[in-house]
Design goal:
The protein is an alpha/beta fold. The protein contains 11 helices and 12 strands. Strands 1, 2, 3, 5, 8, 9, 10 and 11 form an 8-stranded mixed β-sheet that branches. A two-stranded parallel ribbon has the order 4-12. A two-stranded parallel sheet has the order 6-7. The N terminus is likely disordered.
Length: 330
Amino acid sequence: MKFRSMWFLGAAAVSLLGCAGMQEAPKYPTQPVTVVIPYPPGNAADLVGRAMAEKLAQLWAQPVNVVNRPGPTTVPGADSVAKAKADGLTLLVHSISFATDAGLFTQLPYDAQKDFIAIAGIAKQPFVLVTTPALGATKVNELVEKAKGTPLKYASLGPTTQITFVTEQFKKLTGMAATNAPQRSAAEANAAVMKGDAAFWFAPVAAAVPLIRDAKVTALGVTGDARSAALPQVPTMAEAGVPKLVSHAWFGLWAPTGVPKAVVDRIALDVDRALQAPDLLDKLNKLGAAPMRLGPAPFAAFVRSETDASRSLVGDLGIKPQVYTPPAKP
């Protein structure tokens, strides 16, 4: 969804100033913190989350341990945090899928609004449309033309992810025919495109930059409002002829409901401090990500807005809401 930066960043400044006005910041943390990421290692959320965890560990002088809990969807990993002890020592780094899951699924094992406290928006990045070099398409219109003879396959991270929604928007806007070939991870999606098992996919920039630089995939356009600093040579989708396709992946931090406000505010302030550190900003920039710097109140409002937008998009694309089915226990 399009990132409404002016309103939310203005609100973020007010929110963080409010946090700074606390009479006495709590002593936190006094022991190691666990950050759960409901994705496999190497996913964009994992890369951003680990960069933030490393910086917070420096600020806190305490270990911040990253635990990857991937699954068929991100729901089980998020649910493990919703049900964790509300002491501020178990946190969740999640992505735009936090909103899309809430907008698509019914009967989730948690209430996205009631069972979590939104702490901070961390970063956002666009997607980049990449294709297999073997296809011979170097522009978006050439890719669309290739699909006219025989429908192509596109890689995604599953039928309920933002990547699928973006691709379905792309198909609708261009009249292109393509079928979904879901993969379990960004690494597998990239591999599918490189091998030609899938013709293209909208990859998070962080997952695609090394492959683009090594010419293992061909970049056709980014879904941001402007070109990505990590891929300045790649046009926006608007420049490539699809002006209405604007979408960002974003990443944030949550805690289970019940964590004291003073602790939440302390974490939010430290996340904001981290996002002003040159070394972390450099890491994010190399990942094609930009800092969000949203405090608790504006980030919560942003997530609600993104969830509503997800529900609207699902309807516009003709995708029916799905009853969530927990994965089978091993």
